[in-house]
Amino acid sequence: MNNSVCGTSRIVGCTFSVSPMTDQFVQVITEALTSVNTDKVWMHTDDLCTCVRGKAEHVFDVTRAIFAHTAATGVHTVFNGTFSIGCPGDSKDDAYMSEDDKPMNENLGSSANMETASHFSLYPLGSENYMDIIYKEIERAKTKGTLTEGIHYASRLDGTLQEVFHTLEDAFMNAIQSSQKHLVMTAVVSANSPSPKAKNK
């Protein structure tokens, strides 16, 4: 039985799936997973998703790079991820928390400027002022110029791949500073979509 206390662990985890809309999806996903430097995170892939765990900067670095490598093929690519920190059921196993802070996949090349859209939601679990925390990060995204509209159950971001993932990471890291408890963030990110861009209502 795990006796961890909510909010005490600084291990960040993300379970995610990346979906390239192509008949060659197996090859595209496999090449993306093997092309990204994952030396500073624990990573496991099964038939449902991939899980990465470690320091926040490395978890975001790896997930961003895997999405970028997949989307660089030019096919419509969707990333579905759930980021978490402070989970009371987490363990210290496979944590990779002794790594330094230097990201290993900072250079995304031309993919960094790819047009990208995202829906994201923050869940500051166990925080009585959770709506204040959420609204604060929505306002922060507005100042970055990436927040384009609020939708049912989420907020929409638009911008380059680098800008969108930076907004996601910034929102996550600032929200956990406010709550110091269990924080969950869900994110759907899309690139190369053939659908017309949604208009604000």
Question: Summary?
Answer:
This protein is of the alpha+beta class. It contains 4 helices and 8 strands; from the N terminus they run βαββαββαββαβ.
Verbal overview:
The structure is a single chain. This protein has 201 residues and is an alpha+beta fold. The protein is built from four helices and eight strands, in the order E-H-E-E-H-E-E-H-E-E-H-E. It has helices at 25-35, 56-71, 130-144, 161-179; strands at residues 12-20, 42-45, 50-54, 77-85, 115-125, 147-151, 154-160, 182-191. An eight-stranded antiparallel β-sheet has the order 2-3-1-4-8-5-7-6. A hairpin with a 2-residue loop joins strand 6 and strand 7 (154-160). Helix 3 packs antiparallel against helix 4 (161-179). The radius of gyration is 16 Å and the shape is globular. The protein starts with 11 loop residues before the first strand and ends in a 10-residue tail after the last strand.
Question: What key phrases describe this protein's structure?
Answer:
alpha+beta
Give the topology string: H per helix, E per strand: EHEEHEEHEEHE
- Structural class, please? alpha+beta
- The mean pLDDT is 91
Share of residues in strands: 25-35%
Strand order of the largest sheet: 2-3-1-4-8-5-7-6
**What's the shape?**
globular
Number of helices in the DSSP assignment: 4
Q: Helix fraction?
A: 25-40%
**Termini Cα gap:** 49 Å
Radius of gyration: 16 Å
Outline the biggest β-sheet.
8 strands, antiparallel
Low-confidence stretches: none
How many strands? 8
